[in-house]
Amino acid sequence: MSDWSAKNPYSSNLNENYVLNGEGSLKETRHIVFDLGDSGLQYKAGDALGVIPRCPPELVEGILTTCGFSGEEEVETHLGACSLREALTDRYEIHRISKKWIKGLGSRLSSGSGSIEIRIVHRQRTSSQDGSVVMDWRGSGVEDDIPDGYVEIGSARDPAEVLWAELTEDPKAMEDYIWSRDYIDGLADFGHIGFTPQQLVEDMDRLKPRLYSIASSPDFEPGAIHLTVAIVRYNHHERDRAGLCTGFMADRCEIDETEIGVFMSPTRSFVLPEDGSTDVIMVGPGTGIAPFRAFLQQREIDGASGRNWLFFGDWTEEGEYLYREEMEAWRDSGFIDRHDLAWSRAGSEKVYVQHLMKQNGEQIWNWIDGGGYFYVCGDKNYMARDVHTTLIEICSEFGGMSEDEAKEFVETGLMKTEKRYLRDVY
Ligand SMILES: Cc1cc2nc3c(=O)[nH]c(=O)nc-3n(C[C@H](O)[C@H](O)[C@H](O)COP(=O)(O)OP(=O)(O)OC[C@H]3O[C@@H](n4cnc5c(N)ncnc54)[C@H](O)[C@@H]3O)c2cc1C
Ligand SMILES: NC(=O)c1ccc[n+]([C@@H]2O[C@H](COP(=O)([O-])OP(=O)(O)OC[C@H]3O[C@@H](n4cnc5c(N)ncnc54)[C@H](OP(=O)(O)O)[C@@H]3O)[C@@H](O)[C@H]2O)c1
């Protein structure tokens, strides 16, 4: 066994990196293959790979330029001292401003730094319809500094201080602010208060590795790891942005060249049944297909005799039918016994995996009642929740249980006691 870990990652390269979507798809879902080289890294179907991203160089340079730093300045970080450029590249998440960083600005903002804006009115009896002219005037804020003939009607604090107060007092405003902003945006709003290199990195979020469900069996292509990755892209404040790790893998990792830190994140629970004659039902829309591709490869290599039922879904058959050829070959050969596909944006009505589960409720119950395993992978917040509810409904309707009994059967019996309802959701 190797001892690579999040703190001591193996430096891997990519062997392959291509888009799985059909032409015209608005999604970017990639098949990415990592080379395990001589790492000695081992894994099983169901495990996840940890990937350590690096921050975009243009963002690092943008922050340095905005602050007037060279990048060579030394800063203290949670991993010890390093140059500011290294800290911004490898130690902090600079693509999303942190709440703590904004909260930390408080004492420095209220210390009176920055300009003070005063709105004043100068009455001119002879001009304009109502006889008044409204003007903005920036001054020191000291009373004596107001020119003759002007009357102060109110003063405002530094606009950054006002913004800061709004953000720290209103959690929703804070969420909205950080959702769409990186440190270039943050420095545009608050940069005038001035930062030392240390103050700049203080309270930024530490850079975290991302996990990806492995989409291959170790016996399918020894020495390689396949991933199925949905690239996160969006545009805010007229700048294109990307998820930290998905943007790194999609845009800045050259095949056979770029070094990428990886480590294994083994699962103890999300595993295939030991007995290959056990039936398995797999529900994996979108990138949720990843571990099921690994499971199917493994079951085929092992000659597992149990039946395989795959529920997959995504936006459209033309654009987002991931691994279509492989899946259809398995279906045509009879290795995939049941194959149900839910296209959510193909017609006027949404079709989701749980709708197809519902249509096949009796059969699902029969497979489960016969000792089958039930697996779910993919979106945690909506899909997995709805699939869970549907599974309970199916067990109630076809297993002759009340709703409470079916809930107990699924959540305690299948999930905890028998451990044959298994989830890999994120
Ligand atoms: C066990 C496990 C297995 C996983 N397996 C897979 C897998 O097989 N395939 C896969 O693709 N992912 C998988 N993930 C998710 C993966 O770990 C990352 O979370 C994902 O790739 C995003 O990482 P990122 O660094 O690119 O994005 P980040 O920089 O972390 O940003 C992602 C966040 O961006 C935000 N966001 C999205 N859209 C917008 C927008 N329009 N404006 C502002 N913010 C927005 C969302 O809050 C989202 O959470 C898995 C996660 C876990 C925990
Ligand atoms: N911001 C974006 O545009 C965007 C794009 C892609 C992925 N993502 C995010 O990236 C992650 C991975 O995405 P992914 O490509 O794996 O696909 P995904 O977003 O999980 O979608 C896969 C399929 O699941 C459907 N779905 C949505 N809600 C569902 C529900 N309640 N029950 C069952 N199915 C449901 C989707 O339909 P519908 O989408 O038609 O509802 C789609 O057909 C997700 O966390 C997702 O939020 C965001």
What does this structure look like?
The chain is of the alpha+beta class. The chain contains 16 helices and 18 strands. It has a six-stranded antiparallel β-sheet with strand order 9-3-13-1-2-10, with helices on one face. The two termini are 28 Å apart. Flavin-adenine dinucleotide (FAD) binds next to strand 9, strand 10 and helix 9. NADP nicotinamide-adenine-dinucleotide phosphate binds next to strand 15, helix 13 and helix 15.
- Uncertain segments are 113-128, 131-138
Domains (count): 4
Strand count, sense and closure of the main sheet?
6 strands, antiparallel
Shape: globular
> Structural class of the secondary elements?
alpha+beta
Query: What is the number of helical segments per DSSP (H or I, 4+ residues)?
Result: 16
Mean pLDDT: 92
CATH structural architecture of the largest domain: 3-Layer(aba) Sandwich
Rg, nearest Å? 28 Å
Estimate the strand proportion: 15-25%
Can you identify the CATH class of the largest domain?
Alpha Beta
Number of strands: 18
Order of strands across the biggest sheet?
A: 9-3-13-1-2-10
CATH superfamily caption of the largest domain: Nucleotide-binding domain of ferredoxin-NADP reductase (FNR) module
Remind me, CATH topology of the largest domain? Rossmann fold
User: Share of helix among residues?
Assistant: 25-40%
Span between termini: 28 Å
Small-molecule binders here are: flavin-adenine dinucleotide, NADP nicotinamide-adenine-dinucleotide phosphate
